[in-house]
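Journal club prep, shared notes

We agreed each person brings one worked example of a sequence with its structure written out as tokens. Mine is Peptidase S24/S26A/S26B/S26C domain-containing protein. I'm keeping it raw so we can talk through how to read the token line rather than staring at a rendered picture. Sequence first:
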Amino acid sequence: MAEGFKARNLSVLAYANGFTLWHYITPDVAADVDTSGYFADARDMLRVGDFIIANTNRDATMSGGLFVVASSGAAGVDVRDMTAIGTSNTD
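Then the structure, token by token:
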């Protein structure tokens, strides 16, 4: 079951020209995070086009990737599906 959005786990990495690069860490899997409304409590901070670097599923098999904010406003926040980063590990 998803833990849900926790504001304390969302932090600003960089801000310039109306764009914000965020970092977010959660035990939730990426499929739960990219559900429309997951970031609803952050709708006043997240803007269309912002990037969120995320570490998801941190309590099990950590995965990392990038979410892009697709919409943000009174109706809530929606992010695009996560683009995975560092998915292969060859020795």
